Amino acid sequence: xxxxxxxxxxxxxxxxxxxxxxxxxxxxxxxxxxxxxxxxxxxxxxxxxxxxxxxxxxxxxxxxxxxxxxxxxxxxxxxxxxxxx
Length: 85
Fold this sequence. Notes:
The protein is mostly helical. The chain has helices spanning 2-45, 57-62, 64-80. α1 runs parallel beside α3. The N and C termini lie far apart (67 Å).
């Protein structure tokens, strides 16, 4: 009986570890996306003045979340904001 309980507990611990790894990956992507969106938006606001204020080119190349966020932030803020906002 104790052996079955021990095996069950061990399996639950292992499964919980897998679930937290997936969430960590999603959280990391969401954080990168948010950082990229902010940088892209800041650059989009200044586009008409030919200023790209914030773009981490190395990160855009290596981090898909940051790259996607930067592109979407740049596009959205380029047409909806002015530098004063």
